[in-house]
Amino acid sequence: MNAETSTSSVTEAAVRGTSPSAAVAPAVLTTGLVRELLSDRKIFPGVPDDLDEDAELVLDSLGLVWLLHVVEERYGLVVEPADEDIAGLTSLRRLTEFLGAAGNPGAGTHEAADGGERVGR
Predict the structure, then answer these.
(1) How far is CA 109 from its chain centroid?
(2) Residues with Cβ < 8 Å from 11, sequence gap 6 or more?
(3) Given this model, what pLDDT does residue 81 score?
(4) Three-state secondary-structure class, residue 49
(5) Could you tell me where the DSSP H helices lie in the chain?
(6) CB neighbours of 108 closer than 8 A, spacing ≥ 6?
(7) Paired strand residues for 3
(8) Which own/partner pairs from 11-16 qualify as long-range (CB within 8 Å, at least 24 positions apart)?
(9) Class of residue 21 by CB neighbours under 10 A (exposed 0-12, middle 13-18, buried 19+)
(10) CB of 5 within 8 A of CB of 68?
(11) Which residues, listed in sequence order, are joined to residue 120 by a DSSP beta bridge?
(12) What is the pTM of this model?
């Protein structure tokens, strides 16, 4: 996984009580938050409101780009998935785990990452 994060700017903004992009990232991106992001029927018309965490989820490239844009806008998290990452985003649970790992770059890696650095998984 390749992910570029701006967690230091989000953390600094949270300490100051301001935000780098008008929102501060939650401590953890939950399936509920990701489900909410997928609730835009103009972008994701086929995603049911009661989508099970392990039900098959198919996002087209435009939908994925839009989802990642909204994650960046709302939570200040910049994510650049590799092709193999995209192929694995097949359920709400996997999408949530991927975004959570991108938001916590030290998790699952042996490298500590400062904001703005690429993290390889």
Answers:
(1) 17
(2) 115
(3) 94
(4) coil
(5) 7-16, 31-37, 61-75, 83-87, 92-103
(6) 101, 121
(7) 119
(8) 11/115, 13/76
(9) middle
(10) no
(11) 2
(12) 0.65
Q: Cα–Cα distance between 20 and 110 in angstroms, integer?
A: 28
> The dihedral of CA 68, 69, 70, 71: what is its sign?
positive
Joined together, the tokens standing for residue 25 give 């990232």
> What pLDDT score was predicted for residue 107?
53
| One-letter amino acid of 66 | W
pLDDT tens digits in sequence order for the chain, 121 residues long: 444 444 333 333 333 344 444 455 566 789 999 999 998 888 888 888 888 999 999 889 999 999 999 999 998 999 999 999 999 999 999 999 999 998 776 654 433 333 444 444 4
Q: What 3-state DSSP class applies to 9? A: helix
